[in-house]
Design a protein that fits this description.
alpha/beta, TIM Barrel, Lyase, Ornithine Decarboxylase, Chain A, domain 1, 8-stranded parallel β-barrel, 6-stranded mixed beta sheet, about 25% strand, binds pyridoxal-5'-phosphate
């Protein structure tokens, strides 16, 4: 059976590194914690001392209720949503219809995706005051913090102006000051000040440089055979062998979220050969278990995509297992014949 191993030591190292920039973390665990498994990740976050998380929707919030002080839901509530979660307000329209008491106002500082507009901030604050909502946070999102020389600082300056406006309004009207958060992973080391909270996802999971890959994906041998010289294997015999070799079939395929490939793929331990199947791939060599990847930053180089995309699609059907340290993480990799 295939396994996803979550390396707690690496996860904590990443969290320590983020904490050294700003100890106030809103951990983004949307979409099954970027595919890692929302429950095991929440368990580890709680142990580390993280008090706030952000999720995609109510279903995810329900799973982790009880783990954290505050759960911010990025999307508008549905009718059956619980009242004690915090909701991101993505538009003025949503704010006008809102009936949930705890809110974070999202402002559009340049992403042009969602959030209320700069010129709508005053109107929004008046509505919040009139309806008696508790404004817990004000936030914005960067569109290109992972690039140099782009709009990050323009967005940041705009956000500081909005922050100023909100603070003045709250002081004047005797409201609690909300906390302000704008820093995603890529912005962590770019901003002169990361403000009240950082709101990070991919750095925690080690999907960007400077952080350690937390997920290790291991496939189990299903069967083995010898491939002759000039013999092909798999669909359309896309791989043709130049020599006699042992091949192993493991129990991970594109149904498990691995992007489709038709001309082999470099794995951590060996090479996958030819075309990937729905539930299997054929790899070079004789193995009991094969590490497909233990650092998504390496694995992603096989594909025209981003680490987020690989991680988030790893099937929730695969069992997740927390391992304490890198040493325990050594699964048996009995290589009987390597060539
Ligand atoms: C996903 C998301 C984040 C986290 O972004 P990373 O690049 O993974 O750090 C932060 N804020 C919002 C609004 C998001 O949707």
């Amino acid at each position: 059976m295939a396994f996803v191993y979550l390396n707690k030591e690496k996860f904590f190292n990443n969290l320590k590194k983020i904490s050294s920039i700003n100890p106030n973390i809103i951990a983004v665990i949307k979409d099954n914690a970027y595919g890692h498994g929302i429950l095991p990740i929440s368990k580890m976050l709680k142990e580390f001392g993280v008090k706030k998380v952000a999720v995609r929707d109510n279903d995810e919030a329900r799973i982790v209720r009880g783990f954290f002080e505050e759960i911010l839901i990025f999307n508008p509530p549905t009718s059956r949503d619980a009242m004690n979660f915090s909701y991101a307000i993505n538009s003025l329209l949503q704010l006008k219809k809102n009936r949930h008491p705890y809110i974070h106002l999202k402002v559009d500082t340049g992403f042009r995706r969602n959030g209320i507009l700069e010129e709508e901030v005053e109107e929004a604050l008046e509505i919040i005051l009139k309806k008696g909502f508790e404004l817990r946070g004000v936030f914005s999102h960067f569109c290109c913090a992972d690039e140099d020389g782009c709009d990050t600082f323009i967005q940041y300056d705009k956000f500081l102006k909005i922050k100023d406006k909100v603070e003045k309004f709250c002081t004047k009207n005797n409201l609690h000051l909300p906390y302000f958060h704008i820093a995603n992973s890529a912005a962590l080391t770019k901003l002169p000040n990361t403000l009240d909270f950082v709101r990070v996802g991919i750095a925690m999971y080690g999907g960007i440089d400077g952080y350690e890959g937390v997920m290790k994906l291991v496939g189990k041998m299903v069967s083995r055979r010898v491939l002759d010289e000039k013999e092909g294997c798999g669909y359309n015999k896309a791989f043709m062998s130049d020599k006699k070799r042992v091949i192993t079939t493991i129990d991970i395929g594109y149904a498990d979220g691995i992007p489709y490939f038709k001309n082999g793929c470099k794995l951590k331990d060996t090479f996958a050969l030819g075309k990937i199947s729905m539930d299997y791939m054929i790899v070079d060599g004789e193995w009991d278990e094969v590490v497909v990847f233990d650092d998504v930053k390496e694995f992603v180089k096989n594909f025209d995509t981003i680490t987020y995309d690989i991680l988030v699609k790893i099937s929730p059907k695969i069992k997740r297992k927390i391992v304490e340290t890198s040493d325990n993480n050594r699964v048996k990799q009995s290589i009987k014949i390597s060539r």
